[in-house]
Amino acid sequence: MELENDLRKALDLRQFVVYYQPQINIQTGLVFGVEALVRWLHPERGLVSPGQFIPLAEETGLIAQISEWVLREACRQARQWQVEKSQYFKVSVNLSSSQFQQINLVDKVRDILRETGLHPQYLDLEITESIAMHNIDYVVSKLTQLEHLGVHISIDDFGTGFSSLSYLKKFPIHTLKIDRSFIQDITTDPDDASIVTAIRSMARSLNLDVVVEGVETIEQLEFLRTIECDKVQGFYYCKPVPAREFERLVVAGT
Ligand code: G
Ligand code: G
Ligand code: MN
Ligand code: NA
């Protein structure tokens, strides 16, 4: 209850901050994208993870405003890196399930792109399989409208949703983000290795990109290299960091 009251005031008090985690192409060694991950800087509790407050925001209906703020802030920052640093990263923003259900989602995205000056090809929207499975016809129509805007769509946490794979040919999506639970033991568990190899191969024949999440060790990275999973994200390279630190670590070094 107390947390709920605090959450209501958090936007006005500017307590949210977006962290960024680089996505690297291990073939070229270059950063091609960043995932935007929101945090709540609570005055007493410190840094509150979205895993804790997103569900509360969903319950209380505060999610719409918070999500809109994150989307705008991530687009603004990505555009600023282009203008000030000549760095053209694709920025990935997580869509919550209620955000995806919003009837004016497409208009909102269009308005924010216009307002921030970010070209749609640099925005990637991540939806989870469970969102995607909710109402197939609605999802196909929404994603098609977003695709017409020119933004990219990724399926987040891919492989954990128990969903029918038939949606992969119905939906206009570009990227599968393989869930980090498959990567954790990839060098010791032959089943995980097989699953990731199979997803890679399926994605290639469906003409989908793959990003592997949760890469933490050089051994995992070397294995991924052998199965030609070139796009990775994870603590091995960098944890999610504030924009200024991202600039120091990534932009300055490129
Ligand atoms: O970065 P972290 O591990 O704390 O993120 C925890 C979860 O919160 C992840 O599943 C992530 O996708 C989600 N998350 C992070 N930022 C956002 C956001 O802006 N919107 C939504 N809907 N989820 C987010
Ligand atoms: O659900 P989603 O994939 O959006 O969640 C992203 C979350 O994964 C972020 O909260 C981020 O902090 C976390 N994350 C990113 N890289 C790693 C990693 O290498 N290991 C672990 N354990 N978590 C990671
Ligand atoms: Mn994500
Ligand atoms: Na994920």
TrEMBL record:
Residues 1-254 form the EAL domain. This is PAS domain S-box-containing protein/diguanylate cyclase (GGDEF)-like protein. It comes from Tumebacillus permanentifrigoris. The chain holds residues 439 to 692 of 695 of the full protein.
